[in-house]
Amino acid sequence: MDVRNISRDVFTYNILVDAYGKEGMIKDAEDVIELMIQRGHYPDVVTYNSLMDGYCLRGEVDKALAVFESMARKGILPNALSYNILINGYCKKLKVDRAIALFQQMPSKGLAPTIETYSTILQGFFHVGRHVEARKFFKEKMINQGVELDKVTCSILLHGLCQNSYVVEALSFFQILESRGLVPDIHVYNILIDGLSKNGHLENARSLFDNLPLKGLRPDVKTYTMMIQAYCHEGLLDEANELFREMEGNDCLPDDVTYNMLIRGCLQNKNYCEAGVLLDEMLGRGFAADASSASVLLDLLDVQEQDPALLAFCKKYFP
Predict the structure, then answer these.
(1) Is residue 77 a contact partner of residue 71, using CB atoms and an 8 Å limit?
(2) Least C-beta-crowded within 10 Å: which of 26, 228, 230, 308?
(3) How high is the pLDDT of residue 296?
(4) Which of 101, 103, 105 is nearest to 120 (CA)?
């Protein structure tokens, strides 16, 4: 785009720099900055933040740092967003120690970390497998210092804990967060229900699921699918089927993932008749069996190739 003949102020220039940066067109963003200087408009912290963000989106965090360091030489003070951009960039490059160094620098510059700062570092720790430090950071830097948490932070924490099998601790933190006034949404509940059910805590997962209406929440298709998977894993096929049929009554239509999950459960529990009913229903709704369902069927044929019911199922649906 030729921007030379467009009249604009710093605000308009900043919009252009930001737009070019988000598209990865850093050279164009730099050209706009050069043009604004030539026309007597001086870049501000917003301008340089947009340029830094553009570099970080391209994975060029060291170039973003160079822009950050040049700001001070030009008499422009970085703000909390400047730090957040760099911290996020380093965390995405798995350089969490560099992110922590920036975080620790903020108070000396008169800047208070925002909830985005804390959330980014927390996720960065989990992302590189440093879950012990993540838990310590959450307790000491956030809970103990009274940081006001949001649902994004809650999701990051619970997902990180559940992924590392700290499900009891995740449930404990969840209760702490609720006591601090955080109102979790269905996404937050889904993370915890999934983590509990996959780590042998089906009763806790079921309790959370059953109490959703009391919290003013309705299960979505992911919630139902997680619980159906948990029931199937425990061999509780009747409960899985009951929950599956309950979905439509609650205006929540199963998707292809739900169907395939239950079909696999039926196959693994040798309920080929019910698997057939579900397969017919699924195909009638325009869904198809996925690779995992086909894999389960092949595995069963390897070990139960003489099972008449299984052979009849295969002949009917996979002739």
Answers:
(1) yes
(2) 308
(3) 80
(4) 103
Confirm if 260 and 293 have CB atoms less than 8 A apart.
yes
Q: Which residues have C-beta within 8 Å of that of residue 137, sequence separation ≥ 6?
A: 121, 122, 125
d(C-alpha 151, C-alpha 149), whole Å: 7
pLDDT in the model for residue 240: 95
What pLDDT is recorded for position 2?
Answer: 42
Q: Which residue has the tokens 């009249």?
A: 7
User: What's the token pair of residue 43?
Assistant: 């870049």
> What pLDDT sits at residue 319?
66
Dihedral pair phi/psi, residue 226, rounded to 5°: -60, -45
